């Protein structure tokens, strides 16, 4: 993102203006958009270098790199918007590797005609999320596509972080006997989006759980427990995330339905729409797998953090070469919890 | 990009299949698409970790991070496609900072209904470009949007590299007296896209110059000259790139039209369409600014590399607080070379 600002006669009209094709041209209009909107909001020493890439200090530790495109619809929803979501999502993907997130890049694909006021609101939300997380957006890019070739705005963020020595988290580290912990309730993000999309209203509003989890993760790592796996159960929900881990580690799992918290309005919305909350996306929750003797200590560390207040042990890892994830139900039965098949909720993140 | 592969009954139909919404669900269909198409093509030890981010070795040197979204239309063009372009473009943005590119991430926004055969061709092209450049695609993401909410495929790549000690290149380093060098002809990429879009044919075909320039740049750095600025003149063309540098450095420039190579078919196409090649995008060219005494040595180093064969000194940096870029024309006159205003060529990269 070249942040060099040419001379203009007039400032951008952030109230009534709209994105037009010239904002993606590489010329004067694009430079103005970047300078007055993006660089002004993201404001940091790296972006201010004004080159096409950012020059950053040497990083101490193994690197982690993660990327996510965000195409959520609607762009604004209860509890957040595509802007903060795109910051939280990538910070979480870096942090669940055991890394301290250091830098983000952000690339925008804008649709011609998109209101600059909405873009400004989204960019402000990103900037605030990045500042709150202490992870600057150091470089970026902007492209514009014709009306009908995009959908308002898509945002791709990439994160870089460093893993301290001695930490090794990976989806293939789960071992039979390990405990499975979940940091809080499931389904909030997905049902916030879906209920808004469908125009559903409930007695209590459903609010997305979108949040940056690196603070919670740092507290968990600091507790000194033997963590094996961390992952944030986003698209595909808790069920798909656990199936991925089971497959990677070559183990089975037994979950306990009664231990998995689902907020009442989420449960009601899922029932109404015939959805299983186990498959609904989360954006501020994590799954942790640890050595069995460490589960209590890990649980205490999680519950001491605001984003882990409702943490619980939700199951155990089993020896099972087939990698089946099963669950004891509230009624005392047993069911298989398979991968998500087909499409449950499009454009959830 | 989680590369864990669930069990399937059938392989992906890469001949007649199409992208559907389930390929973005986070579930079984997405996992299959990633495993059979992306992970198979990009194949490297980092991607094979199968987590949502890639764990990479510690990097020696200051980091550089650059990102670019690619929305080029058409997706396939003479000399390349969106796949290799997305690899080359980001490698170049990292390399012009003086960095050795180390890793790429790639994130895909696919439109429902897009042929898997085309996607496969694009991914193969990316994989080949990444292999040829020696820069692995270590992590990624895939999202799917409904038909009419995207345009086939958009690809966002992010690159990370390291800058060796002692190298400091930035757009604000140009000084009066410095020489301005260009690595070859201009306008080839933009006119290849545009002539294809408009259905124009010329006696000689116009072929995109898309290429990874980190090899050329390494040779230039190895020559030991005092390089001040490197930049690749993409969107907005040579004119806009030089205006950016002039603004950043607080200097003027005097270019010499006769020294700037424009291939004959590009010149003919520009004339026909009323375009100025100075503003047309390049994807395999670079501008270098160096201390005046080093220009000959730098020119020799550039000409010794296949991508710098047609390199030339095209002008000088002047003291000028207004930052004007001027040019002596072939006819002996003088003109101002301003920033690109408005939109010359939409969706060129």
Structure description:
The structure is a homodimer of 349-residue chains. The first copy, chain A, folds into two domains: 143 residues, 60s Ribosomal Protein L30, Chain: A, CATH 3.30.1330; 158 residues, Alpha-Beta Complex (Phosphoribosyl-aminoimidazole Synthetase, Chain A, domain 2), CATH 3.90.650. Helices cover 28% and strands 23% of the residues of chain A. In chain A, helix 1 runs parallel beside helix 3 and helix 2 runs parallel beside helix 3. Chains A and B meet through helix 1, strand 1, strand 2, strand 5 and strand 6 of A and helix 1, strand 1, strand 2, strand 5 and strand 6 of B. Strand 2 of chain A pairs antiparallel with strand 1 of chain B, so a sheet runs across the interface.
Short characterization:
Chain A is α+β, with helices and mostly antiparallel strands. The first copy, chain A, has helices at residues 28-42, 82-95, 116-133, 188-198, 214-222, 237-249, 264-273, 295-303, and strands at residues 54-58, 62-70, 76-77, 80-81, 100-111, 137-145, 153-163, 179-182, 227-231, 252-256, 287-290, 312-318, 325-328, 334-336. Chain A folds into 2 domains: 21-163, PurM-like, N-terminal domain (60s Ribosomal Protein L30, Chain: A, 2-Layer Sandwich); 179-336, Alpha-Beta Complex (Phosphoribosyl-aminoimidazole Synthetase, Chain A, domain 2).
């Amino acid at each position: 993102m070249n942040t060099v600002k040419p001379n203009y006669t007039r400032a951008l009209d952030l109230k009534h203006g709209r994105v037009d094709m010239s904002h993606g041209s590489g010329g004067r209009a694009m430079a103005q958009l970047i300078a007055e909107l993006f660089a002004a909001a993201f404001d940091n020493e790296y972006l201010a270098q004004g080159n096409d890439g950012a020059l950053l200090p040497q990083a101490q530790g193994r690197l982690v790199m993660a990327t996510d495109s965000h195409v959520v619809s609607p762009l604004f929803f209860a509890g957040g918007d595509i802007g903060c979501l795109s910051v939280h999502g990538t910070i979480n993907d870096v942090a669940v590797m055991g890394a301290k997130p250091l830098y983000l890049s952000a690339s925008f694909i804008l649709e011609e005609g998109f209101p600059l006021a909405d873009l400004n609101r989204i960019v402000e939300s990103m900037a605030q999320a990045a500042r709150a997380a202490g992870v600057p957006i150091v470089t970026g890019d902007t492209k514009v596509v014709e009306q009908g070739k995009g959908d308002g705005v898509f945002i791709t963020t990439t994160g870089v972080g460093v893993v301290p020595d001695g930490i090794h988290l990976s989806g293939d580290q789960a071992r039979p006997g390990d405990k499975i912990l979940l940091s809080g309730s499931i389904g909030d993000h997905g049902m916030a989006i879906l209920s808004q999309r469908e125009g559903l209203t409930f007695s209590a509003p459903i609010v997305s759980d979108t949040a940056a989890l690196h603070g919670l993760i740092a507290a968990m790592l600091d507790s000194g427990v033997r963590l094996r796996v961390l992952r944030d159960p986003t698209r595909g929900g808790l069920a798909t995330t656990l199936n991925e881990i089971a497959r990677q580690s070559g183990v089975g799992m037994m979950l306990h339905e009664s231990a998995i918290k689902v907020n009442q309005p989420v449960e009601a919305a899922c029932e109404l729409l015939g959805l299983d909350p186990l498959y609904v996306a989360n954006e501020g929750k994590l799954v942790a797998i640890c050595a069995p003797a460490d589960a209590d200590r890990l649980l205490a560390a999680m519950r001491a953090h605001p984003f882990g207040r409702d943490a619980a042990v939700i199951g155990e890892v089993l020896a099972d070469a087939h990698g089946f994830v099963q669950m004891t139900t509230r009624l005392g039965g047993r069911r298989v919890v398979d991968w998500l098949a087909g499409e449950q909720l499009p454009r959830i993140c």
